[in-house]
Amino acid sequence: MIERHKGALLALCGVTILSLDSLLVRLVDAASPWNLVFWRGLLLSITLLSIEVFRAHQSTEGRPAGLSVTVFTGGFGYAAAAMFFVLGLGKSDVTSVLAIYSMAPFFAALIAFIVLRETLPRHTVIAMGVAMVGIAAIFQYGVESGEGMGDLYALVSGLGSATYLVSLRRDSGRSGTRILITGGVTMALIALLNGANPMAI
């Protein structure tokens, strides 16, 4: 299988799994959004840190590269994406949040064009324009129905996800685990600062 096709297939599998995330968040209605953010961040960091420690013991190539600007940028982007995704679901309907969040690839293409000097194909630009018209319609409905803040949170989530994706692309995914660990710790700390009560869940 061609590597490009393999990457597209893996991305499709990831998006399919992620599509269940919003439904699961809505089902956990006994916890405040910040409690959910705390546990999502902490458990993610603990899991991936354990994997990193295990890999370090098994590897004969020495210690992996440490923290960098790319790691912190990607980590904060992931944290913003995950936090505002949860907050958006608490203030808007699932369909609107997912529709706006789906703009993340287009935001990523635009950021990569500016930061990484990657080309921006014409068909991508056309798709971005069409998508923006749809997002504008969703925002208009959100404002009229009192869900505008949730839609805004979803937009910030999409921008955060785009930042995370471009950070992964910048070093070909080599810092992926450290980016997610940084993002998870950031989520947990910000949740605590915003009044999360982890044991209430």
Q: What portion of the residues fall into strands of 2 or more residues?
A: under 5%
**Low-confidence parts lasting 5 or more residues at pLDDT below 50?**
none
Based on CA inertia axes, which overall geometry fits? globular
Helix content: over 70%
Report what the structure shows.
Helix 4 packs across helix 9, helix 5 packs parallel to helix 8 and helix 7 packs antiparallel against helix 8. The chain contains nine helices and no strands. With 201 residues, it is mainly α. The model has no long low-confidence stretch (mean pLDDT 85). The chain is globular and about 55 Å long. 78% of the residues lie in helices and 0% in strands.
Provide a short characterization of the protein structure:
With 201 residues, this protein is mostly helical. It has helices spanning 3-18, 21-27, 33-58, 69-91, 94-101, 104-115, 122-145, 148-170, 176-193.
Compile the SSE list and pairings:
Blueprint: H1 3-18, H2 21-27, H3 33-58, H4 69-91, H5 94-101, H6 104-115, H7 122-145, H8 148-170, H9 176-193
Helix pairs in contact: 3-4, 3-9, 4-8, 4-9, 5-8, 6-8, 7-8
What keywords describe this structure?
single chain
